[in-house]
Amino acid sequence: MGRQPTSPPEERRNQALDCIPVRNPEVRAEATGQGLLLSYPVEVRPWFRGILRHVTGNPGIVTRKLQLDSLGSSVWEMIDDRRSVRQLAARFQERYQVGRREAELSVTAFLRELGKRGLVAMKEKPGNQATPRQT
Amino acid sequence: MEHRQIGWDGLRFRVPALWQAAVIRDGYLLFEEDSRPVFGLRWQPVPEGLSPRDLVRRLQRRGEAKNIRIRLQDGPVGSFPLPDHLAGHGFSWQQGEEGGKGLLLLSSRSRRASLLQFHRPLSPLETSDLLRSFQDHGGEETPQLWAMYDIRCLLPARARLARSRFLLGRYTLAFDLDGLEIVLHRFRPAAELLAGSSLELFGQRVLGMRSQWLLRKEADCCEWEKAATRMERFLGRLQKGKRAARRLRLWRPAGENGLLAVGLECNTQIDGRLFEELCASYGFA
């Protein structure tokens, strides 16, 4: 009875935690009173690009900003293109004395949000696969 | 052994403090120990007239279709008495490399069946603690305990969980109570989140409160209230789900490096008594 199971969801979670977040090199971080203010270029939608180019001469790239709070800023600073999501979560857990699972869930949710905005990409752990992918 | 009280959707039980809730879904909880599954729990209403044994047999039939082999067993019910309102039947399951023991519990109070799956052999003490503490209060009209991770709160029985979410330093549980939204927030660590700021500013910046709604301001507690105008109520009826009346209390419990907040949102008048009851029962576990 009771062999240690390794269910597919658990494997997927472990693989996700082993991924390495890589910062978008075009993101600029600036310290403000509340934390880091991230500025990043975004391509406007194709239908709007022509209008923007015609009116302003802009080729279709605008700069967006994202204000991080102190916790978000500390996780952003931890991303060094080498540490895995699991290692970042462990550091977060250690620094802020939260539960392990809470650290994993919250750091993962934060990285997912950054990924949606194109601020980070995810690289497979060396040895698994080397193709970076968007979160 | 240190234990943690869990309260979720009418279910209450105690688990070793090392077990952490890893998966929380509608009708399903999975606990892990050292990153490995240790205890899973599923629950759902079942038709009347069925015994736990009948339900395990149903499981057997369903399991065959998914290549899961389920066998009826007497233990661990035989050696550990259950609370009066529960009847149970043990089983074992095997699916490929995976397997373990389990227990199907049927509550006479809620007419719900709970499927307990043990992913590793539990010690007699662990089994005993879990089963003796297990209760199913679903369907009762008394306030229900919601206790998960480091927070606990008593909510009206009709409150239904709408969402549960972790963000950095923040855990949020939102419930729906007949169109009223109840939101419980927990922030940690307070010292870091409040550095150079105040509760009032934190409430404005993070929880979307406005200075003109401020009702109460103390060193360790702030409260905001916004009543809905007639026009807002009318518009709210037109736009289903839009809630114009809001009340929120944000406080820092003494001796804790965390912040708690209770928020109510509805399209009519906020029930002040319910609000006070929620604030009184909400706290760190």
Structural class determined from secondary elements of chain A: alpha+beta
Low-confidence stretches of chain A: 1-6
Overall average pLDDT of chain B:
89
The assembly state of the depicted protein chains is heterodimer
Largest beta sheet: strand ordering of chain A:
1-5-6
How far apart are the termini of chain A?
Answer: 38 Å
- For the largest sheet of chain B, list the strands in their spatial order: 3-4-5-9-8-7-6
Strand content of chain B: over 45%
How are the elements arranged and paired?
The complex is a heterodimer of chains A (135) and B (285).
Chain A (H helix, E strand, L loop, with lengths): L7 H11 L1 E4 L4 E5 L2 E9 L2 H11 L4 E7 L2 H9 L6 H12 L3 H17 L3 E4 L9 E2 L1
Antiparallel strand pairs in A: 1-5, 2-3, 3-4, 5-6
Helix pairs in contact in A: 4-5
Chain B lengths: L2 E6 L2 E6 L3 E6 L2 E6 L2 E10 L6 H14 L3 E5 L12 E10 L2 E10 L4 E7 L5 H10 L1 E2 L7 E5 L2 E5 L4 E8 L2 E8 L2 E8 L2 H4 L5 H9 L6 E5 L2 E6 L3 H9 L6 E7 L7 E8 L5 H10 L1 E2 L1
Antiparallel strand pairs in B: 1-2, 2-10, 3-4, 4-5, 5-9, 6-7, 7-8, 8-9, 11-12, 12-20, 13-14, 14-15, 15-19, 16-17, 17-18, 18-19
